[in-house]
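[Q] Does anyone have a clean C-alpha cell version of this?
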Amino acid sequence: MAAPKKGRRPTGAQGRPGRALAIILIAMVALTAGMFLTKQTTPRLGIDLAGGTSITLKAKSEPGKPDAINETNMNTAVGIIERRVNGLGVSEAEVQTQGRDHIIVNIPKGTNEQQAREQVGTTAQLYFRPVIAFADGAPAAPEGTPSPSPSTSGSEAPKAGDGKTSPSAAPSSRATSQGRALSEALKAPAAPTPSPKASESKKADDTKAPSPSASASAPPTGDEAAAADLQAKFAALDCNDEAQRAAAGKGAKPEEPMLACGQRGEAWGKWVLGPAQVNGQDVKEAKGVIDPQRGQWIVTMQFTDKGADKFAKITGELATKQMPQNQFAIVLDGRVISDPSVSQALTGGNAEISGGFTQQSAQDLGNMLSYGALPLSFSEDSVTTVTAALGGEQLKAGLIAGAIGLLLVVIYLLVYYRGLAFVAIVSLLVSAILTYTIMALLGKGIGFALNLPAVCGAIVAIGITADSFIVYFERIRDEIREGRTLRPAVERAWPRARRTILVSDFVSFLAAAVLFIVTVGKVQGFAFTLGLTTLLDVVVVFLFTKPIMTLLARTKFFASGHPWSGLDPKRLGAKPPLRRSRRTGPAPAPVDAKEA
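[A] Here you go.
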C-alpha cells in the first residue's frame, strides 16, 4: 500500500479547535468591554420605540418663481435634509413628503434633536458678496440731528457758506459720512461717462469749490434714486431687533445689492452688500476643523473649478480697494457670518471662514455647505412630540412572538437532535451576545437606532442561524449512516456543510443588501439587521459551532453514540463500519477437491 504524500493534510484532520474558540471568546470580551467603556449598554431606539420629535415643514413660494414648488424640488429637498440630519449622527431619522408642499421629519429621542431641528429647514443659500458699507447694528440718527457741542474741544462750529463744508454736514454724525460713502459706492460701478455739458461746466468752474447744492438741484437718475432708497433703509435698519434682522435680507436676489445683519463678537452689525459673485453651488466640500496655529475653529472650503476661477477674480478686484470695500461678506440665508478682508487674489480653489466659531457651529456650517442649499425656502408648520406608547406595545408583542418562535426551535432541537441541541442552543446564545453588543456599539459609533422592523430582522435571523446548525448536523449524520465513527464523520461532513452554509448565507446577505439599497426609512432597519446577523451566523458557525463539535467528538458520551446524544448509529440506521468490509490482501485461491 502506497504511503500518503507528505505536506498533504489527510482527510479527517482535527484542526485546532482551541484557537478558534479563543478568538471568538476574545471578540466577545472585547465587544462587551467596549460597550461598558463607552457607557452604551443598550442599543439606541428609533422614534417608534423611544419617541422623539416630529417636524412639519411647509415650502414657501418665492417672488418671481411661482412654479418652484414641484415634485422635483421637493424630492431634492428631502434628500438634502436627510443627509444633513444623518451627517449629525442622527440615524433612523425619517424624512418624507406629505402632499404637495409639506415635508415631515421624524427625529428619534436621545439624539441631537435641537441641533437637527435648527438644520432641517435651513435653506443654506450661501453667497459671497462684496461689502459696500458697514455700520453698527443700531439705527443711525437723522441727518439733521446735531452732535454734542463742539465747544468742549474749544473749537468753533463751522459756518455755512465758508467753502469748507455744507450746513447739513456740519454735525459730526456718523450716519452722514456713512451715507455719502454708501452713495458713492453704489453709484461707482454703474457711473456713466461724463457728458460734454458736464465736462464744459467742470472746466468753467475748476477754480471754484464744489457746491453741495449744485448736485442736489439736478434730478436724480434711476441708480441715484435706488442708492438713496437703499441708504435710507440702511440708516433706519436696527439689527438689534430680531424681527428686523430676519427681514433684512429677505427676498434679495443674487444679482442685486442687499442689506444684511450679522454678529461681530457679541454685538450686531449691519452691511450693505453688492451683487453675489460666488454662490454655494461653487463649493465642492466644506468642513469644520480646528486651526492648529491659532487654536480656533474654522470652516475650510474647497471650490469647484468654476467656483475657484470666480473666487480668484472677485478677490483680485477687492484687493485694490480700501476698507471696508476690500472685504467680502459670506452670507448664509441672508445673514452675514463672516466678512474677511482681502489683500491679494486668492487662487488655488481653497478658502476658510473664521470668526469666533465653536466646535458645534463650525461643524454645523460645514455640514450644511457640504450637502448643499435647499432648492426651496421652508417654514416650520408644526413641531410635535411623539410618544413611544404605541411602539412599546408593538415591541412587547414582537418580543413575545420572538420568544415563542425561539421556544419552538429549542423544543424541535431537543426532540430531534437531543444532545446536539446543546450545541445549537449555545451557538444561538453566542450569536445573540455578539448581535446585542455590536448593535449597542453601532448606536454610539454610527448612530444606528433599533426600530420595530430591525427587531423583526433579528427574529428572522434566529431561523437563519438555526438552519446552519441543522445543515451541519445532518451532514454528520449522513457520514455516520455510511458507517464512519464520530470523529472522522465530524471532519468529513464539514467541507460539504460549509459550502452549503456559505451559499445560503450569501443569498440571504445579498437579499438584505439589495433591500437596504432600494428602500428608505424603517425598512432599511430590517435589511441592516438581517445583513448583520447573516454575517454573524458565518462567524459563529466557523469559529464556535465547528470547533465545539470537534471537541465534543472526543468525549465518550458523543463518540460512543449514546442514545441521548442524537448520534446513535442504530437509531440512524448506520451500515456496518467501512473498515470491516475492506479487504487488506488478495483473496485465497480456490482449493481443488481432487488435490484435497
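[Q] Thanks! Anything notable?
[A] The chain is about 50% helix and 15% strand.
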